[in-house]
Write a structure and sequence with these properties.
It is built from 14 helices and 12 strands. The chain is an alpha/beta fold. It folds into 2 domains: 164 residues, Leucine Dehydrogenase, chain A, domain 1 (Rossmann fold), CATH 3.40.50; 154 residues, 3-Layer(aba) Sandwich (Rossmann fold). The strands form 2 sheets. It has a 7-stranded mixed sheet with strand order 9-8-7-6-10-11-12. It is globular and about 55 Å long.
Length: 424
């Protein structure tokens, strides 16, 4: 009889939330006890100290993490987050979700995630480069094109990935572009990678609206979070004909019932660095923004923003989880019981980013590169296949769409672990 382990290392609300999702899915598919904990808990983690010399000559030591959840189905894959509220529990939960996501969409990867406790806006460009390179240097024995392949996440971007790739390449003595994805095009990045996550979110929204018999050009959208994913989702939805009536960043949101000009908003952010005081719409709090009446609500920032406090107040028809883990377990139950909101769960909704990261990795390994049209066409084919498998699982077992997606992803990882056996 297996004995469950209880991990205090990752103790956090978000890790507990991911574990509860796993337990529900494992129960739903009667996952054998002997394989449960092996599938559930991270394979390994690394915590590192990152000393950086500041512009004034002082030295600040930052703390960084990398959690590799699953290495049974291929190299692990996942972003690196630079944010002041990073915890090892959050990083572990994100690594778990990456495992289910990669498995769900059919990628030969396990899940991983990295993070550094830092507000990147408080660093000069030189300090940011030193921090990025030091992180890679400390992780260099645990990363590699066939071991663990990082990518950008909250607070990081293609420039940072370029610095990390250069650091790794210097260490191994030759150019190794496949060690990270989300790089600049000049360093082996893929066409379409920057917009991939948002473009995938918008594509799935369009497909589910069609299933709901709602024309996309009659739809209104509210997007919480206006970083890379949120802004690219907005641009793609706008191109499909949808009206974006509210957007927000960490300073708050803006609302215009007649629609917001997304290109104008992006131009303003490029100048002012935040949405605050944008004159193309009225100010609104992030809390009120989530409760606006709209066709599509897109949480595209951090996790756990839809809670039991606001789940009853949502006025959307479709909830598209562009962020990872934006809906708490309690809120999920409320939304399911309501029955009037369709859900695109995060492991499906935002999978476009890791799919095109996979394409970038393939192109790096083969030194053969595709056009943007080829990349996007292949992305949409894989999203269609994943959507069809989730909806088939939902119909077959009468699961919620989240449970359908999780049972597919978790079941495939468990099957691979069982097939490989247990090393003595």
């Amino acid at each position: 009889m297996s004995k469950a382990i209880i991990s205090s290392l990752y103790s956090s609300d978000v890790f507990t939330m991911a574990c509860r999702q796993f337990d529900q899915a494992a129960d739903a598919i009667s996952l054998p006890e002997a394989i449960r904990d092996r599938t559930k808990y991270p394979r390994r983690c690394l915590a590192v100290s990152l000393p950086v010399r500041r512009l004034d000559g002082s030295v600040t030591v930052f703390e960084g993490y990398r959690v590799q959840h699953n290495l049974s189905t291929g190299p692990s894959k996942g972003g690196i987050r630079f944010h002041q509220d990073v915890t090892i529990g959050e990083v572990a939960a994100l690594a778990m979700w990456m495992s289910w996501k990669c498995s769900l969409v059919g990628l030969p990867y396990g899940g991983a995630k990295g993070g550094v406790i830092v507000d990147p806006k408080q660093l000069s460009e030189g300090e940011l480069e030193h921090l990025s390179r030091r992180y890679m240097q400390e992780m260099v024995n645990f990363l590699g094109p066939h071991t663990d392949v990082p990518a950008p996440d909250v607070g990081t971007n293609e420039k940072i990935m370029g610095w990390m790739m250069d650091t790794y390449s210097t260490h191994v003595g030759h150019l190794s572009p496949a060690v990270v994805t989300g790089k600049p095009i000049a360093l082996g990045g893929s066409q379409g990678r920057r917009e991939a996550t948002g473009a995938g979110v918008a594509y799935l929204i369009k497909k589910y609206l069609a299933d709901m018999k709602i024309p996309v050009n009659k739809a209104t959208a509210v997007i919480q979070g206006f970083g890379n994913v949120g802004s690219e989702t907005a641009l793609a939805l706008e191109a499909y004909g949808a009206k974006i009536i509210a957007i927000s960043d960490y300073t708050g949101g803006v609302y215009n019932a007649k629609g917001i000009n997304i290109k104008k908003a992006l131009a303003y952010i490029a100048y002012a660095k935040t949405l605050k005081d944008f004159d193309g719409a009225e100010p609104i709090s992030n809390e009120k923004l989530l409760e606006l009446k709209c066709t599509v609500l897109v949480p595209a920032a951090l996790e756990r923003v839809i809670t039991e406090k606001n789940a009853k107040k949502l006025q959307c028809r479709l909830l598209a989880e562009a962020a990872n883990g934006p809906t708490t377990n309690a809120a999920d139950k409320i939304i399911e019981d309501r029955g009037d909101i369709e859900l695109i769960p995060d492991v499906l909704c935002n999978s476009g980013g890791v799919i095109v990261s996979y394409f970038e990795w393939l192109q790096n390994l083969s030194s053969f590169y595709w056009s943007r049209d080829e990349v996007m066409q292949k992305l949409y084919v894989m999203l269609d296949r994943a959507k069809e498998s989730v909806d088939a699982q939902k119909r077959k077992f009468k699961f919620s769409r989240r449970l359908a997606a999780l049972t597919l992803g978790i079941g495939r990882v468990a099957e691979a672990k069982a097939a490989r056996g247990l090393f003595p």
